[in-house]
Amino acid sequence: MRNPKAAGFARRLIRWQRRHGRLDLPWQNTRDPYRIWLSEVMLQQTQVATVIPYYGRFLERFPDVDSLAQAGLDDVLALWSGLGYYSRARNLHLAAQQLMARGGFPEARAELEQLRGIGRSTAAAIAVFSAGRREAILDGNVKRVLARHFAIEGFPGERAVGQGLWALAESLLPASGIETYTQALMDLGATVCLRSRPLCAQCAVKASCMAREADRVADYPRKRARKPLPHRKTVMPILLRGGKVLLVRRPASGIWGGLLCLPEFPNLPAALREIPLRFGCELESHRMLAPLEHGFTHFSLTIRAALCQVRSLHPRAAQAGEIWMPLARSLAAPIPAPVRTLLLGLRE
Fold this sequence. Notes:
Layout: H1 9-20, H2 33-42, H3 48-61, H4 65-70, H5 73-80, H6 87-102, H7 109-112, H8 120-131, H9 140-149, H10 159-171, H11 178-191, H12 210-213, E1 231-241, E2 244-249, E3 260-261, H13 268-279, E4 281-288, E5 292-295, E6 300-313, E7 322-326, H14 327-330, H15 337-347
Parallel strand pairs: 1-6
Antiparallel strand pairs: 1-2, 2-3, 2-7, 4-6, 5-6
C-alpha cells in the first residue's frame, strides 16, 4: 500500500525547484555525460562552493573524455590537489580510459555502474541528467530528506534500512519531469533540509513531513555513535638544495595515494638520523616551523615541518619515487593541500 505521505511529494518538489532551486550551476543545462559525470564525482563528499573553481579548471585542461584518458595521472592529480579524496581522481582517470575503450558513454544506469568509481546513486544521476532515464538517486542529502519526511527509523548505513530507502526512493519517482525532480531532491537536502538547523519553514514538503509533525526532526536520520577522532603527529623535513625541494611519491593506495609529498618521520631525531641514510643528504642546518593542523575524515594530523638546508648529496643509486624539483614548479605538481601550504610559506 502506498504511503499516504507520498501523495504529491514529487509534484511539490518539482514546483519548488522551478521557483527556488539552484538553476545556474556550471554543470546544469547540459546533456553532456562527461560534464555531468565530472560534477557528480567532484561533488561526492564535497560542497558545491568548493567544487565550482576546480570544475572550471579541470574542464579547461580536460574538455572531454578523450583528453582525460590520454593525460598523465600526475596532470590529473595536480588539478585535483586540494580537493581531497584522491581516489576519486585516480578512478576518474581509469574510467575515462574504460570509456574510450568501449567507444563512449552508455546511457543505462547498470552499464554506468561498471565504470571505476561509479556507484549506484552516481550512475543514476548521470543517467537522469544526460539521458532522461527514470532512475532513483540516494546520496547523503537525499537519505536525510527521505528519512525525515517518512520518519525512517534506523541508521541508513544498515543493510535493511538502506534497502528500504532505495525501495522508497524508487516508489516516489514521477512519471515525468525526472530531471527537475532529481535536482529538487539534491537542492532541498543541500539548502533547506540541512543536517543541523534545517530551514523547515521553507521546505516544499513540510506539510506532510512526519518528523516535523512529531517534532523530531533532529532524530532523523539516526546517527551512528561517533568515537573521538584519533590524533596523529608527523614530522616532514623540507629538504632544500640549490632552489630545489625533495619530494617523494606516496603509495598508490591510502592517504594522499599517488601524490608527491614531503618525506615523513615519526619525530625529529628519527628524521635527522634517517635523512643521510635514505636520501644521501648531508645537512647544513635545520629549524622547526610552526605546527600545521590538518583534518581527515577519520583522524586529525599535526604536521611539524623541519626546514633543512642540504650541504651536499652523497653519491648513491637513484631511488624510485624521489624527485628534486624546483620550488616554484613544485606548487604545480600533484601535492597534498598541507604540503602546498608549507611550500607556499617558503616562497612568501
